[in-house]
């Protein structure tokens, strides 16, 4: 006579004698899963900061080039003011005081990132300013405008002789 024994069978048809995973195994698996989920989230914040500073640098580079071209075409002195979240392009005043910029040509917003410079005369309480003047529309100095934080930021380099700008990662 054969004895009948009750077995628990798994889906594959084999006898299963285990009761499940231990608490330690579940906690280790959960910790590994949380680590894998958190890595992309940490790098995502850094990528957003880099994109904001890169966008601000593109706008600043365009505004500086525009001010230089208008200085070439219209003469006088053109000033670009940059602060966190805003830029303003000022043009020469009337004929009696052509060296004093008093009329806003353009003003708009840029991504809100920290704005600084390595040129002392460009530094203002609210941010940075760059002035273009003369026959060749040269800037008043050579230097860099820094946008964003170190590591994720950008910089716009302004050359003294030509006023040409170049954008770089910081």
Task: Give a structural overview.
The protein is α+β, with helices and mostly antiparallel strands and 170 residues long. It contains one helix and nine strands. It is rod-shaped and about 85 Å long. The protein has a five-stranded antiparallel sheet, with helices on one face. The chain has a four-stranded antiparallel sheet with strand order 4-7-8-9, with helices on one face. A hairpin with a 6-residue loop joins β7 and β8. The longest helix has 52 residues, at 23-74. Helices cover 31% and strands 29% of the residues. The chain starts with 22 loop residues before the first helix and ends with a strand. It has a single domain, classed as minor pseudopilin epsh domain (minor pseudopilin epsh fold, 3-Layer(bab) Sandwich). The chain has one helix at 23-74; strands at residues 77-83, 86-92, 101-108, 115-117, 127-133, 138-139, 143-147, 154-158, 165-169.
Shape: rod-shaped
Q: Uncertain spans, ≥5 residues at pLDDT below 50?
A: 94-98
Q: Please name the CATH architecture.
A: 3-Layer(bab) Sandwich
User: On the 0-100 scale, what is the average pLDDT?
Assistant: 79
Number of strands: 9
Q: Structural class given helices, strands, pairing?
A: alpha+beta
Number of helices: 1
Can you tell me the CATH class? Alpha Beta
Beta percentage is 25-35%
- The arrangement of helices and strands along the chain is HEEEEEEEEE
| Computed CA radius of gyration, to the nearest angstrom | 31 Å
Output the CATH homologous superfamily: minor pseudopilin epsh domain
């Amino acid at each position: 006579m054969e004895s009948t024994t009750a077995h628990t069978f798994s889906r594959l048809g084999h006898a299963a004698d285990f009761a499940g995973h231990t608490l330690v195994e579940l906690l280790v698996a959960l910790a590994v899963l949380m680590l894998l989920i958190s890595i992309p989230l940490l790098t995502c914040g850094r990528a957003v900061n880099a994109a904001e500073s890169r966008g601000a640098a593109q706008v600043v580079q365009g505004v500086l080039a525009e001010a230089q071209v208008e200085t070439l075409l219209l003469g006088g002195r053109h000033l670009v003011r940059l602060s966190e979240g805003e830029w303003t392009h000022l043009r020469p005043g009337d004929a009696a005081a052509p060296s004093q910029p008093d009329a806003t040509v353009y003003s708009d917003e840029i991504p809100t990132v920290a704005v600084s410079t390595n040129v002392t005369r460009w530094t203002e309480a609210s941010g940075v300013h760059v002035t273009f003047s003369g026959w060749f529309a040269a800037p008043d100095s050579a230097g860099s405008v820094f946008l964003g934080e170190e590591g994720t930021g950008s910089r716009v380099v302004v050359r003294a002789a030509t006023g040409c700008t170049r954008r770089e990662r910081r």
